[in-house]
Every structure is written in C-alpha cells, then in structure tokens.
TrEMBL record, chains A, B:
Domain HTH crp-type: 157-231
GO molecular function: DNA binding; DNA-binding transcription factor activity
GO (cellular component) term, any one: cytosol
InterPro entries: cNMP-bd_dom, cNMP-bd_dom_sf, Env_Response_Regulators, HTH_CRP, RmlC-like_jellyroll, WH-like_DNA-bd_sf, WH_DNA-bd_sf
Superkingdom of this protein's organism: Bacteria
A Pfam family hit: cNMP_binding
Keyword Transcription regulation: yes
UniProt keyword annotations, A-Z: DNA-binding, Transcription, Transcription regulation
Protein name, UniProt field: Cyclic nucleotide-binding domain-containing protein
Annotated source species: Rhizobium meliloti (Ensifer meliloti)
Gene3D superfamilies: Jelly Rolls, Winged helix-like DNA-binding domain superfamily/Winged helix DNA-binding domain
SUPFAM superfamilies: cAMP-binding domain-like, Winged helix' DNA-binding domain
Length: 250, 250
DNA sequence: CGGAAAATTGATAATTGTCAATCGTCGTGG
DNA sequence: CCACGACGATTGACAATTATCAATTTTCCG
C-alpha cells in the first residue's frame, strides 16, 4: 500500500484527457495558459492509499485527474462516515487550503492521479483570473449541493431507498464522466464503503443490497457494484437524478 | 404568516451592527465601499415565513443581518430534512445564484432581516475585488465543513449523541455571535425542528431530549432549548466544538 | 375562553444492529 | 500444484434502537 504519492511532472494541461469531455465547459486560451502555469506536477497513489489526512496542513490544492476516492471523517472510537466520493474533475483539498487544517481525510478507492497546484499562486488566480475564481466558488457550491442530497438521504430515506439513491448517484456521476465506456458499469466500492456512506451496519447493508439485487436493479460483482437498472434505482429512491449543466474544470 | 418579505432601504453598511463583532475579520475601506454599493436594500420576514423556496430562480444574493432560519429539503411524500441553520453573517442563496435554481428551501425560525445584493454585480465583485471573491469561496467552504460534521453526526452518532451535538453546535454558533447577551441562552427551535435535523421521529426526539434534560445538560424552555451545560453536551457528543478563526462577512 | 400547536407518555411494531459463524475468492509461500 | 491466510460477502438468531399509534397534557394566542 502506497501512502506517499509518487510525484511526476505529468502531462501538460493542453493535453488534458479530461477537458475534451462534453461535460466540462469550454476553456479560454488564456485560462488554459494560467492553469498550465498553476499546475506544478502530478501525484499518483495506489488503491487504498491515504491521499490527505485530517489534521494535515495541506500545502497544495489538487484536481483529480483519474481514479476514484472518498472523503470521510471518523469519531474517536473508530466509527467512520463517508461524506462523499471524489472522481475525475473534482477539486480536493480546497477546505484545507482556504481554512488551514484539513477536517476530513481522503482515501483512494482505485489508483488515483492528482494534478498538483501551488497554493501560493491561489491569490494570483483570484487577482488575475476572476472567471477561474468564480469557477472555484461554483465547484464549492456543487459539493455543497451533493452534501445536501446526501444529508436528505441519510436523514430521511429508508435503508433500501438510501442504498438505491447512493448507487444511482455514483452511477450517474461516473456515467457523465464516461467512465463506463467498456460496456459494463462497475462501481469500485466494497459493501463496507456503502455501509459507511449510508450510516448502516455492514450486515444490514448486505441484506439491503441483496434486496436490490433480487429486484434486478444491480448485482454485486467482482470488486464492486454492477448497475443493471438505473431507472429502477432512481424510481425506488424517489430521486430525479443529477441535473448537471456544463461544469468548470480547473 | 408573512411569505413575501418586506423590502426597505435598510441601514447603510457603514453602520452595520454585525461587522464590529470580534468574530468577523476587519474590512478595508474600499471593500466597505464596494459592499455598500453592492447592497440594494433589506428584506424582512416574519417567523415561519418561507425565505427562499426550492425550484426558485433567485434573483438576488443575501446575507442574514438578524434572526434565525433553517435550510431544508423535502422528499415527495413530505419527509423533511433540515440541512443546516442560518444565522447572522451567513450568506443565503449562493447556490441558486451560481447554479441557477435553488435546490433547497429556507424558512425563518424567528423574524429575519436579510441584506439584499444585486446578482448582476457579482461579476463585478469577482473582477474588481478578489479579496471579496476569496471570501465568498471561503464562506462556501465553511458551509461545506458544517455539512460534513452534520453528516458524520447523522450517519454515525446515536440519538443521544446526535442531539447533544446539535444543541452544542447551535449554542456555539449563537454564542460566537453574542446572541445570548441577555443572560440566558435559548435556541428558538421546536422539537419538530430538532427531529427533522437529526433524522429522528418527533416522539423519539422528545424522549431523547428528556434524557439530556435528566442529566442537567439542558432544559426545554418556552419557545426553545435552554442550554445549561455546554461542556457536558460537548463531552457527550464526543465533539471538540467549533474552531472558528475570524471569518469574513459580506 | 377556545382552539391550535407543541410537548409528553405508554404500548406496540418495525427497522436496524450485534454476534457468531460460514463461504468464496484470491494471492502467497511451500 | 496445493495449503494457508486475509479479506469481503453472506446468513441466521437475537438484541437494541427507533418508529408508529393513540391519547393527554401543556402552552400559547387571539
């Protein structure tokens, strides 16, 4: 298990594999130039590595370039709550960068590569590139929106509804990123991750997922959850699904 | 019940009653000048008025000048989840302003007065006042942090711990705003609000609060919760409490 | 005074958690 | 190639927590 990430120079932003996705809003040439300058390299982690730890002063700001991870907090006695998942295009470490210490940890679910940005230059970003500054706020507001949904789900949905919501949520996020191109759609989480996201015990989570499988909505596959019927999941959760217009990528 | 707010010219920012609080970071003269110009008036609501409704296009951006409110979402069948509370100095409507439609509603707990900002001028804020833009992002990150804590609480704490956490959280936020100057400390919520925040039923919430009262940690007073032993609540919740350095006010 | 909203209570039911195994898969070392 | 061990999934039995139902009581206000 790699805990320290491996640093490399990485690919230049102009060759960014993410930016061409239809999901992301177009980027002005000067913005691209600035971001290229803002990025100082890449950091690679293995699956289950700790990317950022609670209590750390984060020196840098990151964008996920590839891979899946999750943000979580723990209580003193070890109870863990997964707050949200991070996927390509997500910004990571912003809370820590703005407010000092990280108040949550981030762990890799699969091998993860981050773009590394120099914290010092953030002021320059705000000074010289108001559009990018706006984008940062936008991205923070988007995270808030996801957390609102999660809170609603954990607080008020039943176990089955909650599970359906979570799987549908992850499926849709990954689908818009075109992570399922290869034909099947496996979300790389264990049932323990699902349990820690839903606020349920592992045993009850297992029984709940079985119910969803019995309805033909999903199947538990090798190393994750294979979605069979996204519409069924959405209906069961009573959720409209993600409504994401074009979003910024930094 | 007032649903439409009453609009007035309001007090000029230079006489803002909030800004002098030690909680808020100092403000440069030019920032004050811009914000004065950014603010177009005030909007007053009565207790239990709907300040913003899910689905609305919000024309404006607001800062709470006085009063308590809460943000919430509902499922189709009426189940309600309170996401967070809003208090003086909090920004309201940012999600809607940035991303289009509001995805949650906001209701007043007590009479509330908002400062109203012209949405159109937001671009100008980003262009001309990078420090204020930074503050906006900072405030969004702060909200995210509070939501993280809430999520941890709802997902992983027991009913009693959850209730203790919530009351301590609200108490501390109000205390830093010096809302309890008059000697006693009553949080203006009903048990239904507590229930909808904790994700519990009203009956079980009542029994849970009784347990806290039996331990001498609080008492249910007229129109709210009177905190008797904040340290006891913090200890019971296993929570360190709010750690807020100076924060920006817009 | 009357009525409505909020708080309280006890009884009972449903949901979810805990315990204790078992099973399956997979990678490693012999 | 096979045994071993680790981790994750699965199960059944039972316990604890939380929800629901159905009153009552209390408080608040016009």
């Amino acid at each position: 298990m790699i805990t320290e990430g491996k640093f490399t120079k990485g690919t230049p932003c102009r060759d960014c594999p993410l930016r061409p996705l239809p999901l992301f809003r177009p980027f002005k040439a000067e913005e691209l130039a600035f971001v290229s300058h803002f990025k100082i390299g890449e950091l690679a982690f293995g699956a289950s590595a700790t990317i950022l730890a609670e209590g750390e002063q984060s020196e840098h700001l990151f964008t996920v370039l590839s891979g899946w991870g999750f943000r979580y907090k723990m209580l003193d006695d070890g109870r863990r709550q997964i707050l949200n998942y991070v996927m390509p295009g997500d910004i990571v470490g912003l809370q820590g960068t703005l407010m000092g210490e990280m108040q949550h940890s981030i762990e890799a679910l699969s091998p993860v590569v981050l773009c590394v940005f120099q914290r010092d230059r953030l002021a320059e970003l705000y000074r010289e590139h108001p559009d990018l500054a706006y984008d940062l706020t936008w991205i923070a507001a988007r995270e808030e929106r996801m957390l609102d949904e999660n809170l609603l789900s954990i607080g008020r949905r039943s176990a089955v509804e909650r599970a359906a919501y979570l799987i549908a949520f992850l499926y849709q996020r990954a689908a818009t990123l075109e992570l399922f191109s290869s034909g099947w759609s496996v979300i790389p989480v264990t049932q323990q991750h699902v349990a820690d996201t839903l606020g349920l015990s592992i045993v009850h989570t297992n029984k709940t997922l079985k119910k969803l499988a019995a309805r033909g909505l999903l199947r538990w596959a090798e190393k994750g959850c294979d979605v069979h019927d996204i519409d069924g999941l959405l209906a069961l959760a009573g959720w409209d699904g993600l409504s994401e217009p074009k979003r910024p990528l930094i």
